[in-house]
Design a protein that fits this description.
Elements: H1 6-22, H2 42-64, H3 71-104, H4 109-114, H5 136-156, H6 158-180, H7 195-218, H8 224-247, H9 255-269, H10 277-280, H11 283-297, H12 299-308, H13 317-343, H14 348-352
Helix pairs in contact: 1-2, 1-11, 2-5, 2-7, 2-9, 3-5, 3-12, 5-7, 6-7, 7-9, 8-9, 11-13, 12-13
Length: 360
């Protein structure tokens, strides 16, 4: 089994649930508008930070091995590897959402055609396109951000992660929060690019700086008491951001404060200094982490079912939200099993139908 960081695994799952509840506002209730956890989108910022950390770790590992692969090849190899991880879930979620929308018959032909942009991962540059799977803007922004950050980090190394990245966050991030007041409106135009792509670039870059901070922390010989305090601080930071964004609605101007708190927590979690780190590296937390992707991409499946199936309209809004969440989680469990089963199959015969094998 792939080695994972148990604390990060658990919080990936928790933040995916926060985003799920945040999307309750999509559940219709006539002309009335309701919402819970309206600021739950902070979970996306957590995912960007962790992605930036893992990107930096990948580059450091390649450099340590003395990798001499041309930059353009290593960049696309890295991006394709990332796509392979989540794309099966995107395909399944798209197909199910498409079936739901077709049965409801509420879209025109151009709407269905426009929604194909989900599959091309271009939502971050075409924010006004029809969305079939709501979470694709995040995947799109992440891939474009990594296309920029990966080769830059590979070329500049620590000059980027330790100097350019924090300066970029301070200058560009400060400008965004001043001009936009919040980082949550992913489709808002910043004057250069959409907010979703801008925040992805900044937060993935910040994740690279977090990697260097985590490495530094890992080399310090803390006492057991200090390590316990670090563990409490890490959990406290994640819990604080999670709860404040779940409970309060007027916290969006504090976005960068929350992101910095999450960054500190991620650095501590990956430093391997927390005394109960080994305990957290278990199969349950690893499974919950793998479940976070299908949960995130399955939100609109649950929303589409409770909004378009007449039988669910008999229930009050909150009960339909709970049903929607249940549908998403059950579907995610099934989808995860299907994808992991299919990954284990041997496709060599199918591959030979399309690609010629070299003679030996």
């Amino acid at each position: 089994m792939k080695k994972r960081n148990g604390m990060i695994s658990l919080w990936k799952f928790m933040f995916s649930l926060l985003i799920l509840v945040h999307h309750f506002f999509w559940v219709k209730d006539g002309n009335a508008e309701h919402s819970l956890f309206i600021c739950g989108a902070i979970g996306v910022d957590f995912f960007f930070l962790v992605s930036g950390y893992l990107l930096a770790k990948k580059v450091a590992s390649e450099n340590l091995r003395g990798d001499t692969t041309p930059l353009y090849k290593s960049t696309w190899k890295f991006l394709i590897g990332k796509v392979k991880v989540f794309y099966p879930y995107l395909l399944i979620s798209f197909a199910v959402c498409l079936a739901i929308q077709l049965s409801a018959g509420r879209w025109g032909k151009m709407g269905y055609l426009d929604s194909v942009s989900d599959l091309f991962l271009i939502q971050a540059i075409t924010p006004k396109s029809q969305r079939m799977v709501g979470g694709t803007w995040y995947l799109s922004a992440m891939m474009f951000a990594m296309m920029i950050v990966y080769p830059t980090l590979k070329k500049l190394g620590k000059n980027f992660s330790c100097i350019i990245a924090p300066c970029l966050v301070a200058i560009a991030g400060g400008t965004l929060i001043y001009t936009q007041s919040s980082l949550r409106a992913w489709s808002a135009w910043t004057g250069i690019m959409c907010m979703g792509l801008a925040k992805a670039i900044l937060e993935v870059s910040l994740g690279c700086f977090v990697y260097e901070c985590s490495k530094y922390l890992s080399k310090i010989r803390f006492t057991r008491f200090a390590r316990i305090l670090l563990g409490v601080l890490q959990t406290g930071l994640f819990a604080f951001v999670f709860l404040v964004n779940a409970i309060y609605t007027q916290v969006r101007p504090l976005d960068w404060m929350f992101i910095i708190m999450l960054a500190i927590g991620v650095a501590i979690a990956f430093s391997d200094q927390i005394p109960w780190q080994e305990w957290s590296n278990n199969k349950v937390f690893a499974y919950l982490e793998r479940l976070s992707t299908p949960i995130y991409l399955g939100n609109f499946i649950g929303i589409g079912i409770v909004n378009n199936v007449a039988w669910f309209q008999r229930f009050p809004w909150l009960e339909r939200c709970i049903i929607m969440a249940g549908i998403v989680i059950v579907f995610a469990i099934i989808e995860l099993w299907v994808v992991e089963y299919l990954r284990k199959r041997d496709y060599s015969k199918l591959k030979r139908l399309f690609i010629k094998q070299e003679k030996t």
